Structures are given as structure tokens and as C-alpha cells.
Amino acid sequence: ADADDDDDVHLAPQLTIDNYPVGWDGKPIPYWLYRLHGLGVKYRCQICGDATYWGLKNYQLHFQQWRHAQGMAALGIPNSREFNDVPLIADAQALWRKMQKDEKRAFNAAQDEEFEAADGQVYTKKVYEDLKRQGLI
What we know:
alpha+beta
């Protein structure tokens, strides 16, 4: 009996003798409910040490749990919302490199600054000044 067995969500669903799924109270759950929640579907996460999560809800919840956060920290990547639904280490690292490259792009007022004309149209600074000089705005 491991000390952290009670908080493991990656364990297989409990089954009765007849391989029928049971709920938290030990009673069999309806098969349609089992199928509705996708409890028969395995989701793997490499970042969590190749842990297996049963059901989409458990899989989506695990991105905010300690095991995933610890795996992301070991990779040197912050555990932010952008990395939800990224279970592969290579994909997470590629996304992190892309985010860092995009972050280095500095704000350029000539390209990025926007102006709104009286009629509600939004223009870049250069276009706005050209139209204003021509008397069109």
C-alpha cells in the first residue's frame, strides 16, 4: 500500500468479478454512463512519466495536478494554459521554443500601433497618417 495510492487518478477503473465497472460506492454503474464519460478510453501523458488516465475528464483535470506540474518544471517549461492537451515532451518543448521566439519580437510602433478613425475604422499608424494628410479622414 503506497502512501499516495488514494490520490492517483491514473489507476484503471475498478471492476467487479464480471468485469463490470463500479462507482465510488462499490455499486455497479450503468454501462451507458460508463460509455458516456469515456471511462474505457486511456489517455497517456509522457510529461507525467507516461502515466495513464482513464476518461477524458480525468485526463483534462490532470494538467493542473502536481504530477504534470512537476514534469513541466523538470523540462524547464512553465505549466500554463497554453500547454493543456500537450501530452508529448517533444511537442511541449517545440511549443515552448516557438513561444519564446514570438516573445522576443519587440513592439514596433510603426507596425503595431493602431488608430481608430471617427467612423470606427481601425488603421495602422502609417495608413492613418497618410489618410489624414490626404484629408480622407
